[in-house]
C-alpha cells in the first residue's frame, strides 16, 4: 500500500509476521551480518564526535553488536549499551539488554541513540519514533538508518515486476519489511516525534553484504547487476539506504 500524501509504502501482511530466529541471522541474511557496513559505522562515529567522555550511547536493535564494538574501538571512553530481542553476552565496554524497545525503561536517558535497519520492521512506527525521542536527553542525538523506497534499486524492482521478473521485488519487499520509507516520510515521522534534522546521508551497503537468493552463474550475474546499480545510484543520488541524524527538541 502507498500513502498518496507522502509516498510512504507499507505492507499488508497475511498471517503471522516473520519471526527472528537464529536462521534469520545465520542463513537467510548471513552476508548482511557477516559483512558489517564499516563506512557507515565510521560516518555515525564521526557524528558522535562531540560527545564528552562518559557519555551514554544506546543502539536499539543492535543485532550482534557490530556497531557498538566498532564504536568502542574508536571511543573507549563512552558508556555503550545494546538493546535487542536476541541475547548477547556483555563484552568489555559494552552492556547488552534483551528486551522489546517499548518495554525498555533505563534508569536515565541517553546522550545519543543509534538504530540501524530496524524501523522498517516495526508495525507501530509512530510509537517507535516517540520512544526513540523519549530515550535521549533534551538535545540528544538520534541516528536512524533504513531503506529508501525511492532508490534506484527499489524503482528497478517495481519496474521489472511489471514484466514478470520478481526476484528483486520479492527481496526488497520481503515479509519482515513492514514499512518502506522515503526521505520525506521518514523525516516527517521523526519530526512529529519532537526531533529536528541535523544531517541527511544517502548511501549503499557493501556489495558483499547483499544476500542474493540464487546460486552459480545466476548469482554472479545478479551480483554484477547490483554492483552496476549501486555505482549508478551513487552518481545520481538514488542510493539504497538512508541515514538521518536527528536532534531531540524536548
Automatic annotation (TrEMBL):
Alphabetic keyword roster: Methyltransferase, Transferase
The keyword RNA-binding is assigned to this record: no
GO MF annotation, one: methyltransferase activity
GO BP, one annotated term: methylation
Gene3D superfamilies xrefs: Vaccinia Virus protein VP39
InterPro entries documented for this protein: SAM-dependent_MTases_sf
Known EC number: 2.1.1.-
UniProt name for this protein: Class I SAM-dependent methyltransferase
Organism: Actomonas aquatica
